Here is the input.
Amino acid sequence: MKMNELKLVYFSPTGTTRKVLMETARNIDLKSVSFDFSVYKEKKPVLRFAANDFVLFGIPVYYGRVPALFTEYLANITGSGTPAALIATYGCREYEDALLELKETVEKNGFKVIGAAAFPAEHSLVPTIGARRPNKNDMKVIADYGVQLNRRIRKETAFDSVSIHVPGNSPYRKYGRNSLFPKADVSTCTVCRACAKSCPSGAISIKEPMKTDHKKCIGCLKCIRVCKQNSRAISSIKFRILSSRLNKVCQNDRQADIFL
Ligand SMILES: Cc1cc2nc3c(=O)[nH]c(=O)nc-3n(C[C@H](O)[C@H](O)[C@H](O)COP(=O)(O)O)c2cc1C
Here is the structure.
C-alpha cells in the first residue's frame, strides 16, 4: 500500500509534546499535516483518516493518564484500520496508564497502533524537574524513533502481524483533580488577552481575562507562560508544596521507553 500523508494529532499546552512530535515526524518520509488540539475548540472537530494515512498521536501525561480534555477530542477522531504511532511526554515522574489508555482509545476508534513511546521531559508544573529536557541526547533517541517508524511503514504492506504491548493497567488510575488555579494580578494585567486566547480549555474569559472558570481550568499553567507582564501566578505556598512533593518522586535522569 502506498502511504498517503502523515497526520500529526496532538495536545501540547506548553509545547514539549509538540517538539517531540515534530522531531519524530522530521524522520518520516511523508508530507505532514498538523491537527493541534492545544488551542481551544468549542465544537469538537470530526476527523476521519484513510487506511493509507499514518497518524502520530502526541500527549503530555496528566495524572498518569491521557489528558481528559484530549480524550473528548479523540472521541471524534476515527481511522479505517489506519496505522498510528503514539508519543507520550511526561515530567520525569511516571506515565503509568497513559500509553495504554491512548492505545486502547485509538484502537477502539479504528487505528492500528504500530509503535509507542514515552519520553521524559521538563515538568511543566515545576520546570526545574527534568529542566530543559528533551536535551541533545534525548533528541537523538526521539529522532531514532522516527527513523524506526519510517522503516516500519516503508517495509510493511499490511500491519496485521504487528502487535505492540505497552505498560499500564485497566481500569486506569483515577484522574487527578486540579487545584492549581492561576490568578491575574489586577495591578499589572494589561488586559492583552494573551492568556484567554491561548488557554486550551477556554477557561479564561475573553471579555474579562482576569476571571478564570475553575470548572474548566485544567491546571496546565500555559497562561502563566504566555503572560508578558508576569501578571498571572499560582499561590507561592501551593507551588512550594507541589515542588517539594514532586522533587521527591521525580527522577531527572529517566530514560525513554520505546515499544516497536
Ligand atoms: C496537570 C498536569 C499533570 C501532570 N501529571 C504528570 C504525571 O502524572 N507524571 C509526570 O511524570 N508528569 C506529569 N506532568 C508533566 C507533563 O506531563 C510534562 O511536563 C509534559 O511534557 C508537558 O507537555 P506539554 O509541554 O506538551 O504540555 C503533568 C503536568 C500537568 C500540567
The mean pLDDT is 96. The helical segments are 16-26, 68-74, 98-108, 136-155, 194-198, 222-226, 236-249.
